[in-house]
Design brief:
The complex is a heterotrimer of chains A (269), B (297) and C (420). Chain A is mostly helical. Chain A has a domain of 165 residues: MetI-like (MetI-like fold), CATH 1.10.3720.10. In chain A, 74% of the residues lie in helices and 0% in strands. In chain A, helix 5 crosses helix 8 and helix 9 packs across helix 10. Chain B has one domain: MetI-like (MetI-like fold). Chain B starts with a helix and ends with a helix. The relative contact order of chain B is 0.12. Chain C has 2 domains: 205 residues, Periplasmic binding protein-like II (D-Maltodextrin-Binding Protein, domain 2); 199 residues, Periplasmic binding protein-like II (D-Maltodextrin-Binding Protein, domain 2). Helix content of chain C is 49%, strand content 15%. In chain C, helix 2 links the parallel strand 1 and strand 2. The longest helix of chain C is centred in the first third of the chain and has 22 residues. Chain C is globular and about 65 Å long. The chains are: A mainly alpha (269), B mainly alpha (297), C alpha/beta (420). Chains in contact: A-B, A-C, B-C.
């Protein structure tokens, strides 16, 4: 009985996995076949690279890759700096108004940048950042989630280490840099993973604030590539889609173990 | 001595505010000020060539409440949230338990579950379009093997929203799984051993020991899922554009459409304020709940 | 002394640099594109030809997706103070653009008889959407009508004359029935994306316009309009020659190429793409008639934005004139399937040779004599949305055509009340 139920469970788990991966598998199938063979599932048909050639020549993908790469880097650096400073202040310093400000920050968890697109768009234009990578990244830098995470992580650092560093004559920023930041490495890593995958995938906001191929990230480029007036070619779209997800997907496959480990060690719960 | 404490206190205050200021400035610019500005602009009418913008008080809100599309969209979004949140969490939990157990092919399973998370929603939508398209689509082809009639998943009001919901669940579950997986590893092995010795069934062990220990994680995920049920609309742009007959239109998409396709910023602002108000209420309830139920160190 | 010299040199260089900058007028143009990415190369080619002729003008042509995306992008740019002098946008956006005070009429920009002659050189049917309140607000660029594509092989297989596409609604239904076999349909008319456009074609054929020419009245609940929607619905429900539910605009071409339907109605802008990938013998025909023949025009016009200097306006006008000149129009038509926008384009050697070897390229133009302005009113996006929803509700069986259209009419009247 137990063996049977174990077997059933394995079967269910694998079935779910197959279902979950199938859209990607079909994209691979479609991307490497002519459209007609792809939709008719001619299993014996030839594997071709034409779709990739067509897709590649159809848009400045390298530029899009570069834009996305710059975007996630800029956002990540901004987030690291801002959330470290703010998280440290919330975790280890006592000052009047702290509780109130912390509630404000928590509120921001729910004031989604996505909902405020109209005013944020006006703000970015006012700051002269419209159609710039900084403009895409800036609204996300003071991440409440990140501040919260850093606060939790810094709080768990024992006060003795702090005191020891202070007695050695470290300034407050020095202590932050030499004691807290190294100890919070797993948190940084986990947060970086969440942040990178979020912003690599972000769409609506970049759709609104980017206006030219020089700033467009991959997601927006892909949607524009896939939205010609008179219809889509499934194979070419699949090829373009695969190209745009490949870097992150491979990175994930290669660093899978570290990825999960990072989450475990960060103790996000 | 008192003097030194005082200096130290002042020093901390200055440092505290200095360290907070960059984040606070950005939060003010991109969260607090826009919220107020949205509230303000929702009280004015739209300016056109014939009529300049003027103060209209709550008229925009009255318009929204009288707009049947608005109510349809609200209803859609509620259904969207009511299905995607529990289902994706339940699936995520099952995935985490499986990925954590000694099942064969665990590596493959884990990878497969997690893959949708690294795909941009917009790309994922392209993949799913290939699934849903009547006649050509994978679902129809599979259906036809069993003699089922062709179903126009995205083209019928009864199924369009469900098709969208499925994509969302597919995308989210793997992401939530990671959090559960992390939490599961912190549950000490000896609890399991003790349960085995006592002859507790796996089901009871799961229900009485694992689930309570996962409670904080679950709450964290619920918050995330709720936020996603408002903001995860990218696939609408590819799959349905809110159609047919608004059957799959969600509120953020309607806001976008109002502001950027209909050029009607005031009504978009009104809707934004309503969404924020609802989120705020939910947030307040959550915080009280979290405060009571869990213990963040 | 040495220092002074350097300074003078620097100053001189500065002056010459700025003089150079002043000599060059920079234009930013947003445009949508019909079929897939590679056509951006065609536009880039046209632009670089233009640069060669006009070295003092620099054009940044920005491809920005479909028509809706392009409008959003161009207007965002303007709202945020980014430069944008001209754009190719939906011909039916004119009312909204005027109402938002964003565009300039061309009448004021062009001088005298020469300018008037230029405006008159285009097909009048293509100008219909741009002429509002006595002025011309748009110049036709990528323009289309709806045409019927049909699979000649399937016509032969069904025992029909492959050279004779249906010319009346009755023939359409009869032939459609013969062409329908299990799993494959006789006809597909797309009902996502631009359902109002297809519906307008049917309504015209049924003898009724959907809107008044001043853009403030719609006739959705008119009996013959209701009858039109009933006819469309009957194609699937009663006659079974079309799938039930909506037919997806974006994947329809693929469905036609895969032989899932023997006939499809689609934009002529799809012609080149169909020609490239059809593995069977296909034909293109004018749409059938009920009371009369007809199709709305469609597609994009050039618009000139208001906040532009006189210099930029002159440069932009030059660019528009270049891109709509007969030679360029001919090249564009061959590359896409869109119409040559002026009779002169069809007299160019290139397009003449092309249409002689490939006669379907003439169908859209021949249809122009029966063509009317595309559906467009004030508040056009929302009014259109209401109509689209009514059409989709009827086709999906959620509402009766009469109720759905009455609802759309009511909401249109609410939107248009302020403009009367």
């Amino acid at each position: 009985m137990t063996r049977f139920s174990r077997f059933m469970e394995s079967f269910a788990a694998i079935l779910l996995a197959v279902v979950w991966i199938s859209p990607l598998m079909f994209a691979v199938w479609a991307a490497f076949h002519s459209t007609s063979d792809a939709v008719n599932f001619n299993l014996s048909s030839a594997w071709v690279l034409d779709n990739f050639r067509t897709a590649w020549s159809g848009a400045p993908w390298l530029q899009y890759f570069l834009n996305t790469f710059l975007l996630v880097t800029v956002v990540l650096i901004g987030q690291f700096i801002l959330t470290t400073l703010a998280g440290f202040a919330f975790a280890k310093l006592e000052f009047p108004g702290k509780g109130f400000v912390f509630v404000l920050v928590l509120m921001q968890l729910f004031i989604l940048p996505e909902v405020l697109i109209v005013e944020n768009y006006a703000m970015v234009s006012r700051l002269g950042l419209f159609d710039s990578i900084l403009g895409v990244g800036m609204p996300y830098m003071a991440s409440a989630f990140g501040i919260f995470l850093m606060r939790q992580s810094f709080k768990s650092v024992p006060m003795e280490l702090h005191e020891a560093a202070r007695i050695e004559g470290c300034s407050l920023l020095g202590i932050l840099w030499h004691v807290y930041v190294p100890l919070a490495k797993p948190t940084y890593l986990a947060y970086a993973l969440v942040s990178v995958s979020t912003h690599w995938n972000n769409f609506l906001w970049p759709l609104i604030v980017t206006n030219s191929p020089e700033t467009r990230p991959l997601t927006v480029g892909l949607s524009i590539f896939g939205a010609p007036e008179n219809g889509v070619d499934i194979s070419v779209i699949s090829a373009a889609t695969l190209m745009s997800v490949a870097p992150l997907l491979f990175a994930f496959l290669i660093f899978q173990r570290q990825f999960v480990q990072a989450f475990l060690r960060a103790g996000i719960k | 001595m008192a003097e030194r404490v005082n200096i130290e206190r002042r020093r901390q205050a200055i440092y505290g505010w200095l360290l907070l200021s960059p984040a606070m400035i950005l939060l003010s610019i991109f969260a607090f000020y826009p919220t107020l500005a949205t509230l303000w602009s929702s009280l004015f009418s739209r300016g056109t060539r014939r009529r300049a913008s003027e103060f209209v008080g709550t008229e925009n809100y009255a318009d929204l409440f009288a707009d049947p599309t608005f109510w349809l969209v609200v209803q859609n979004n509620l259904l969207y949230a009511a299905i995607t949140i529990p289902v994706s969490i339940a699936i995520a939990l099952a995935m985490a338990l499986w990925a954590n157990s000694k099942i064969s092919a665990r590596g493959f399973i884990r990878t497969a579950y997690f893959t949708p998370t690294v795909l941009p929603m917009i790309a994922a939508a392209n993949l799913w379009l290939f699934f849903y398209t009547p006649g050509l689509g994978v679902l129809d082809q599979i259906g036809s093997l069993f003699g089922l009639p062709s179903i126009n998943w995205l083209g019928q009001p009864e199924t369009a929203l469900w098709a969208i919901i499925i994509v969302t669940i597919w995308k989210e579950a793997g992401f939530f799984m990671i959090f559960y997986l992390a939490a599961l590893q912190t549950i000490p092995e000896d609890l399991k051993e003790a349960a085995d010795i006592e002859g507790t069934s796996r089901w009871t062990y799961l229900r009485r020991i694992v689930l309570p220990l996962l409670m904080p994680t679950t709450l964290f995920i619920v918050v995330n899922a709720m936020i996603n049920s408002v903001k995860l609309i990218d696939h609408l742009f590819i799959l349905t554009k809110g159609g047919p007959s608004d059957a799959s239109k969600l509120i953020l998409y309607y806001i976008w459409e109002m502001a950027f396709a209909f050029f009607d910023a005031p009504h978009a602002a009104g809707m934004t304020i309503l969404v924020l108000a609802v989120l705020c209420i939910v947030a307040t309830i959550q915080f009280f709940y979290i405060d009571r139920r869990t213990h963040y160190q | 002394m040495q220092k002074l010299k350097k300074l003078a040199l620097a100053a001189a260089m500065g002056i010459s640099l700025s003089a150079q900058a002043a000599a060059q007028t920079e234009l930013t143009m947003y445009y949508p594109i019909a079929v897939g990415g590679s056509l951006t190369e065609v536009v880039d080619g046209i632009v670089s030809d233009f640069h060669a002729e006009n070295p003092d003008i620099k054009v940044n042509a920005i491809y920005s997706g479909n028509y809706d995306d392009t409008r959003v992008r161009a207007l965002s740019a303007i709202n945020s103070g980014e430069p944008a002098q001209l754009a190719v946008m939906f011909s039916i956006d004119a009312y909204d653009l005027i109402e938002q005070e964003l565009i300039l009429p061309f009448d004021d920009l062009i001088a005298g008889d020469e300018g008037k002659a230029w405006l008159d050189s285009f097909y009048p049917a293509l100008m219909a959407n741009s002429q509002i309140e006595g002025k011309t607000w748009g110049i036709p660029f990528q323009r289309s009508t709806i045409v019927a594509y049909y699979n000649k092989d399937k016509f032969r297989a069904a025992g029909l004359d492959p050279e004779k596409a249906p010319t009346t609604w009755e023939e359409l239904v009869d032939m459609g029935k013969k062409l329908t076999s299990d799993g494959n349909y006789g006809l597909m008319i797309p009902s996502t994306g631009y359902p109002y456009w297809m519906f307008q074609a049917l309504a015209i054929q049924n003898g009724k316009e959907l809107m008044s020419s001043d853009g403030v009245t719609t006739y959705f609940d008119d009996p013959s309009v209701v009858e039109t929607l009933e006819f469309w619905q009957s194609l699937s429900v009663e006659h079974g020659i079309m799938p039930t539910g909506t037919v997806e605009w974006g994947t329809l071409r693929q469905a036609f190429l895969e032989g899932q339907t023997a006939m499809m109605w689609h934009s002529t802008g799809n012609l080149t793409a169909v020609k490239k990938s059809a593995s069977f013998d296909f034909g293109v025909a004018e749409l059938p008639a009920n009371l009369r023949k007809g199709s709305p025009t469609g597609g994009g016009n050039f618009y000139m934005f208001k906040d532009t200097s006189a210099e930029e306006q002159a440069a932009a006008l030059k660019l528009i004139q270049f891109m709509t000149s007969p030679e360029q129009a001919a090249e564009w038509s061959i590359a896409t399937g869109y119409m040559g926008v002026s009779p002169a384009a069809y007299e160019t050697p290139a397009l003449k040779a092309y249409t002689e070897s490939f006669s379907p390229a003439l169908v859209a133009r021949n249809q122009l004599e029966n063509a009317v302005a595309e559906f467009s009113t004030f508040e056009t996006a929302r009014v259109r949305d209401g109509l689209n929803n009514a059409i989709q509700s009827a086709l999906t069986g959620n509402k009766s055509p009469r109720d759905a259209l009455a609802e759309a009419q009511k909401s249109a009247e609410r939107q248009l009340r302020d403009y009367r």
